[in-house]
Amino acid sequence: DHWFGFDESDVWTLFHSYAFDFSVWELWGALLHGGRLVVVPHLVSRDPGAFLRMLADERVTVLNQTPSAFYQLMAADKENPGSDLALRYVVFGGEALEPARLADWYERTAAGEEGADAPTLVNMYGITETTVHVSYIALDRAKAAAGASSTIGVNIPDLRVYVLDEHLQPVPPGVTGEMYVAGEGLAHGYLGRHALTAERFVADPFAHLFGERGSRMYR
Predict the structure, then answer these.
(1) Which fold has domain 160-218?
(2) For this UniProt entry, which segments traverse the membrane (predicted)?
(3) Peptide bond into 38 cis (omega under 30)
């Protein structure tokens, strides 16, 4: 709950397949906070209009979507003005977000971030090796209007994110590098895949700065 105000009054959806790690966040997010979880039928999940009606009927407050799925939901919402949604948060993950495509949503929802009833849109980068999220950034109308490129924000509390060069040294701001993820929320490796684990999970040269010994980072 570092950034969110989830509680027992929230209504979540289980929209995604159990095989997609986004479902872990959906399932346990609701259960951890004592909220209600609405299991979305498969056919409804493939019909943006039907899903929009379900969101309104069930008074869903926490929605988790890949950007491509949300763009379709936006189109359905535009075709059905006046949908009485109760959303408080929309969390994106699973693929790169194009903030400029959200501009129309902000225009049509309670004057954007200034409206008391407008949901907070959040972009969260994640990888299977951390199941689920790595980073967080709250979006706003200005970012969408400016056509900003996708950004992943800051690391969540139990993870660290480094951008390093080929010598595993930090690169200056604005310089291209490779992203590495470390911290307590990182997996230990791949079950039964020792060679792949050794290739992708490498020693963290900065672990001592955080009081750790022998920890690894994912590349």
Answers:
(1) Luciferase; domain 3 (2.30.38)
(2) none
(3) no
Please give the distance of CA 142 from its chain centroid, rounded to a whole number.
Answer: 20
* Alpha carbons 184 and 208: distance in angstroms, whole number: 14
52 within 8 A of 100, measured Cβ to Cβ: no
**How is the chain split into domains, by residue range?**
11-155, 160-218
Kindly state the average pLDDT of the residues 115-122. 79
Q: What is the pLDDT of residue 107?
A: 86
Q: What does the alpha-carbon distance between residue 64 and residue 93 come to, in Å, rounded to a whole number?
A: 8
Torsion angle of the four alpha carbons 125, 155, 137, 50, in this order, in degrees rounded to the nearest 10: 40
CATH number, domain 11-155, options 3.40.50.12780, 3.40.50.300, 3.40.640.10, 3.40.50.2300: 3.40.50.12780
Q: Residue 106 is encoded by which pair of tokens?
A: 């902000």
Task: Write down the pLDDT at residue 150.
Answer: 78
